Amino acid sequence: MGQDIKPRSFSPEDRALFRDKLRRCLRAFVRMSEEGRFEVRRPFTGFEIEFNLVDERGDPSLTNSEVLAAIDDESFQTELAQYNVEINVEPRRLRGSALREFEDDLLARLDTAGAKARAVGPEVVMVGILPTVTPDHMGAETLSPKVRYRLLNEQIIAERGENIHIGLEGIEKLELTSDSVVPESACTSTQLHVEVSEGAFPVYWNAAQAIAGPQVAVCANSPFLFQKELWRETRIKLFEQSIDTRSVELTEQGVRPRVWFGERWLESVTDLFEENQRYFSPLLPDLDDEDPLEVLDQGGTPRLAELSLHSGTIYRWNRPVYDVADGRPHLRIENRILPAGPTVIDTMANAAFYFGLVRRLAADEQPVWSRLSFEAAEDNFLRGAREGIGARLYWPGLGEVGAAELTLDTLLPLAYEGLDRWGVDPADRDRLLGVIEQRCRTGRNGAEWQAAVFHRLYDGSGLSRLDALRAMTTRYVEHMRSNAPVHTWPID
């Protein structure tokens, strides 16, 4: 959830100064755009993947400090709760054998980390929502000790002015309140980064938004929360609600949520940063000592720390990222739609599907978003999250069609073409997109496997719901370690 900041409290003056500094950052950003300062190069891609720690029964293990000390690898970091960790995979240019190199690197790091974690006690598991999480794990004491998490929790609750309401209605219904943002820790994701030029940013972002529905439907892996079977990708709605700073009245007035799909197709990346400044108050108004306009005047590259910090507290499903590498500024799209897991090969297949599709759709002379309303794209996203691989989605020229059929007949061929445009090795392209194909043909993604196994264990067995979920989770961990794609996992 971003870099840490110094422990402190924030005054009204801090917020006013931060707003002024944020405006200066935006002026600097616009000037950099007008002067053509952004790096244009063959794009890099990268990953962030969040994990859960579980004990021998499959319950959350609040041991991330001990586990990270044992792993002793800077690519692994803390996350919001003590049963979460995150890995940042080193970026690579998306060409040749890059996807296989990502996969081999991730497998090696997870094998090593998993062995070291097991020596301490817990197991590392990749799953969108850990099925065995209960409300007992949702107290503020579950937060990791990093200052940023405590401050973020305090600021969200203070801005909201009341406890957080979690309400989901899917296969079953869930209603609860929380006095902290800890329920968000149940959401563990895979975040995909694509570096793009400033000019290409709008078409890549629009492409990513257009495919959000089929992406979440085919890759869903979060059907359970607090022992309830809800949406196939429950993580989407839970994340939206668990860090919502709006009161009921502000929600009814149409104030934008901090977890946001957006409301229109993009014409310029500047629009996103301007919307962030216009619609959202600062949560963490921590000031940097750099004056971005003075840095530009001196021929340097500003960090734009306030712009980056503010953007990091607005959780767009496709989020703009400004960064500086080797003294040169660049832009990335951070795709936040995917759940973690189920396996490394499933994760890489999900990534290949996304990377290929956005590259191919961004190249169309008559782009799909010129024929797809933004409202329809958002409706697809919510349908895909709610119903998973069985969802029916709208697609231009086809009308309503099943997510699996849409993927097999329309989207996968485009993803193949897109990976070819990236220059990806054809053998890696075929192997990874073949996983998506078989997932659609079998109708079995992570969410469907979890639900099927849970019901085999629970229905008529006499087991409690929690014990059935524990048994399903321990089986899930075993299969995850095999790295066999989820569509091949047995449900007996």
Mean pLDDT: 95
* SS content category: alpha+beta
Number of strands: 15
Strand content: 15-25%
Share of helix, binned: 40-55%
In angstroms, what is the radius of gyration?
A: 22 Å
Task: Fill in the CATH topology.
Answer: Creatine Kinase, Chain A, domain 2
Low-confidence stretches: none
Protein name: Gamma-glutamyl:cysteine ligase YbdK, ATP-grasp superfamily
Catalytic activity: L-cysteine + L-glutamate + ATP = gamma-L-glutamyl-L-cysteine + ADP + phosphate + H(+)
GO molecular function: ligase activity, forming carbon-nitrogen bonds
InterPro entries: GCL_type2/YbdK_subfam, GCS2, Gln_synth/guanido_kin_cat_dom, UCP012666
Structure description:
This protein is of the alpha+beta class and 492 residues long. It has a single domain, classed as Creatine Kinase, Chain A, domain 2 (2-Layer Sandwich), CATH 3.30.590.20. It has 17 helices and 15 strands. A hairpin with a 2-residue loop joins strand 8 (224-225) and strand 9 (228-229). Helix 3 runs antiparallel to helix 12, helix 12 (344-362) crosses helix 15 and helix 16 (446-458) crosses helix 17 (465-482). It starts with 11 loop residues before the first helix and ends in a 10-residue tail after the last helix. The mean pLDDT is 95. This is Gamma-glutamyl:cysteine ligase YbdK, ATP-grasp superfamily. One of its GO terms (molecular function) is ligase activity, forming carbon-nitrogen bonds. It catalyses: L-cysteine + L-glutamate + ATP = gamma-L-glutamyl-L-cysteine + ADP + phosphate + H(+). InterPro entries: GCL_type2/YbdK_subfam (IPR050141), GCS2 (IPR006336), Gln_synth/guanido_kin_cat_dom (IPR014746), UCP012666 (IPR016602).
